[in-house]
Amino acid sequence: MQDLPLFPDLSGASVFITGGGSGIGAFLTEGFLRQGAKVAFVQRSDATGFCDEMEAATGQRPLFLPCDITDTPALQAAIAAAAAAHGPVTVLVNNAANDKRHATLEVTEEFWDWSQAINLKSYFFAAQAVIPGMVAAGGGSIVNFTSISYMMGNAGYPAYTTANSAINGMTRSLAREFGPSRIRVNALAPGWVLTQKQKDLWVTPEGLQAHLDRQCLSDPLEPADIVGGVLFLASRASKMMTGQALVIDGGVVVTG
């Protein structure tokens, strides 16, 4: 991982990450561990080997809690277990998502509900679960991953882009509601990050080049490129930033 600045207030912080053992999430877990944070994360697949790797690389072992985030009681129980182990969660990163491709005319109600459960519902209920502890702790930071896909008006996964757009509305509402308790809620919208999953399922030379041609910066986005922005939003370096969407996409979309 590239060298990143240290944020002293993240040392010892109780951090909870959804999907923290693979893809972008794995890099986020490592990034927070290197800040000295106490990291807990959930995902469905076994992450014991990843935890071994992180302990060897950083000297700290993350707490892996197996969980299907579409199971709300299980997600809430995992957050409670993380708080019991590390203290009240003061940094929540809602990272887990699924951008499975689909055509509008083929979407069933079952698929729609599944997509929203992963990409939106779990974000809300994870936030709901950590907020009381953040209030008691005097504040906290919630980072909700969204995507530039809805900003671009992309076709090919309408249930996913719907959730992405809704995440921004939810982010703003939670920021307004819990700002008086010094809880900051921001969204982070990556561009096309070349995780191994993306390479295996969606990346073609032609498609990638067409996307890179739309970027201001011509380098492909890697998972490590997202870590610095999340650390910034989690730390007090961004203490007066809330209700915002930070875009890290190489300059595909322009906000403001």
TrEMBL record:
A GO term for molecular function: oxidoreductase activity
Q: Name one Pfam family in it.
A: adh_short_C2
Q: Which family does it belong to?
A: Belongs to the short-chain dehydrogenases/reductases (SDR) family.
Q: Which residues are in the Ketoreductase domain?
A: 13-192
**Under which name does UniProt file this protein?**
SDR family oxidoreductase
Q: Which domain of life is it from?
A: Bacteria
Q: Which UniProt keywords apply?
A: Oxidoreductase
Does the entry feature the keyword Oxidoreductase, yes or no? yes
Look up and give the organism this protein is from.
Gemmobacter fulvus
High-level lineage: Bacteria, Pseudomonadati, Pseudomonadota, Alphaproteobacteria, Rhodobacterales
Q: Which residues form a coiled coil?
A: none
